[in-house]
Amino acid sequence: MNIGEASKASKISAKMIRYYEQIGLTPPADRTDSGYRTYSQHDVHRLHFIRRARDLGFSVAKITDLLQLWDDKSRQSADVKSLTQQHLAELGQHIANMLKTAEVLKALIHCCAGDEQSDCPILYTLQQPDTSAKEPEARTGAVSRRTHANGAAQSHVPRRPSEPS
């Protein structure tokens, strides 16, 4: 089948199929004498696997690992389970970070009058430099939370100098 048919059968765009080939997730497609890509049912099966893994949030790197395990008939299911458990833990951390971010955004929205005035605590907060003492971490789009002496986490939304504490 040609790339259009493989795209339709796998529900992956032709552009993504070419990309997956380029980065090595799929082997180079067979070519006709005129240079067109051709795909077998096995190729489409592999594309289904990749699509399902992407739908479950696996990164390209982790899909590469999963495909290697899938192709290795002497694999141990414990290796697959471990990789999946690690992915689940990462998703849990990502969800927790997103929930923290949502709380900070709610606090910022609550502080903003949302009226005709130009003064905006949301913009004021966004312009403030990060004053945390800890080493910078890889950015994942999450908002960090500060912990008080009692161990409770609190979203940090700086107050404008004119606001009472």
UniProtKB/TrEMBL annotation:
Matching NCBIfam families: CueR
Keywords for this protein: Cytoplasm, DNA-binding, Transcription, Transcription regulation
Alphabetical list of PROSITE patterns matching this protein: HTH_MERR_2
Subcellular location: Cytoplasm
Pfam families associated with the record: MerR (PF00376), MerR-DNA-bind (PF09278)
A cellular-component GO term for this protein: cytoplasm
Residues of the HTH merR-type domain: 1-69
Single GO BP term: positive regulation of DNA-templated transcription
GO-annotated molecular function: copper ion binding; DNA binding; DNA-binding transcription factor activity
SMART domains: HTH_MERR
Region ranges (Disordered): 127-165
InterPro entries in alphabetical order: CueR, DNA-bd_dom_put_sf, MerR-type_HTH_dom, MerR_fam, Tscrpt_reg_MerR_DNA-bd
Descriptive protein name: Cu(I)-responsive transcriptional regulator
